[in-house]
Amino acid sequence: MRDPKPNEWLASELSQNRIADYKAFNFVDGEGVRNSLYVSGCLFACEGCFNVAAQNFNYGKPYTKELEDQIIADTAHSYVQGLTLLGGEPFLNTNVCLQLVDRLHAEFGDTKDIWSWTGYTFEELLQDSDDKLELLNKIDILVDGRFDLSKKNLLLQFRGSSNQRIIDVPKSLQAGQVVLWDKLHDSEKAFEQIKKSDLI
Which residues contact 191 (CB under 8 A, 6 or more apart)? Predict the structure, then answer.
């Protein structure tokens, strides 16, 4: 895993404004029904990363107004709770993410929430570039920290390793310290995986 110093990795120098994937109406990238944008490019290169292809800043396709319009249209449905930013690394693709987040706020106010995953910690983002801090201030929930294979735990809610946190961003910024999401509920029991062959 890599540990960047403040302002060492800049979206303005790294991002190619490309998208690895867009998944509408899913239930796995945060609370409720969500639309998820996976941006391309990440330098953390965590061992065991679930989306290695998206580490490449040139992977996927360009972010376009047509895609943005589609995301806004999908998010407009009353049953969609909000937008999730993943990757890749959203905070190394702030141009794309801020453009979309700003439009989401303009269209829906605070009726839709915004989640983001990041390899950065909350504390690191507070000390980094202005664009990262701007994006942080415009999201509701942050799942932070590098994925640590040695701390992998399948019982954790919405995260892969026990060092990662689900943070209520507005409450944390107001308190001046990390405030965890108040709906956090990790599992206490693992369930045996059912194979397709068992169902036939």
Answer: none
pLDDT over 50 (residue 191): no
The answer to whether residue 3 is domain-embedded is: no
Which residue in the block uniquely carries the two structure tokens 């407009």? Answer: 76
Q: Which of 48, 45, 23, 22 is nearest to 33 (CA)?
A: 23
Q: With pLDDT > 90 as the criterion, what percentage of the chain qualifies?
A: 76
Is the bond leading into 82 cis (omega within 30 degrees of zero)? no
Reduced to 3 states (helix: H, G, I; strand: E, B; else coil), residue 168 is strand
Going by their DSSP bridges, the two strands 18-26 and 33-39 should be labelled as antiparallel
Distance, CA of 167 to CA of 58 (rounded, Å): 30
Answer whether residue 1 is part of any domain.
no
Please give the model's pTM, rounded to 2 decimal places: 0.89
DSSP 64: -
Q: How many domains does the chain have?
A: 1
Give the pLDDT band of residue 153 (cuts 50, 70, 90): confident
111 vs 161, higher pLDDT: 111
Q: Where would I find the H helices in the chain?
A: 11-14, 65-75, 94-108, 122-126, 130-137, 169-175
Instruction: Give the residue numbers spanning the domain of 176.
Output: 11-199
